[in-house]
Predict the 3D structure of the following.
Amino acid sequence: MSSDPAPGGEDHADGDATPVPVPLWRRDFPIQSAGEEDVTRREFTRYLVLGAGALAVGNVGLAVWTQLRSINQGEPRAIVAAATVPIGGTYLFRYPSEDDPAILLRLDAEQIVAFSQKCTHLGCVVFFQEQENRWHCPCHEGNFVAESGAVISGPPVRPLGKINIEVRSDGMIWALGRPA
Amino acid sequence: MRTPVRQHSSSAVTLYVIVLVAFQVFLITVAVEAFETGTKSLAWATAITSVVLVGGSALFLRYLRP
């Protein structure tokens, strides 16, 4: 601060006797602070590139997370007693985490299937249409086969995520948390 | 007073990098959507595009005068 030019005065370049006129704004606002230098275009662009790099790292991280994430990776756990689900009836639960809605359907006395309730198009919640015997997504009219979750029609191109389950000796339906 | 041609080009490079960063923001929204729906192919395509754009931005940075 001691090298500040006096307000209204003139500055001199080093080794040059030619006076450098002090800008008008400096005379009106004779206060300096640390780091007030202008940001150059290169610095500005460098910050932008660094920001873009951070976003790219986020993108790669999301891709890796998407790759590693599987619906059959949760802890094995009991869902519901098989006897409480009637034939043609459904049961809502959450699996593998509390943020993942899932649905179970009893097709007949022996066959029970469970799927992620997220439509593979844009993640809306699917529900069972008993008359058509299919899973239906009301957002964009996507339809899936009740037994397998395969796409019947609509914008989805991938089947519903199938949750591997089994009915154990105690009559409870268990999500296995691993490939069947 | 005319602006030197070199200064014009460096401003254009900065503007171009700004556009690339805006595109990166768009790509992160696509990646989030791919994550939500579990679309692995889209997630990887987005990640690769994003990395290529960053590489391009870094290359443009080299053309800027100090």
Q: What stands out?
A: Chain A has a mean pLDDT of 83. DSSP finds two helices and 13 strands in chain A. Chain A touches chain B through 30 residues (CB under 8 Å).
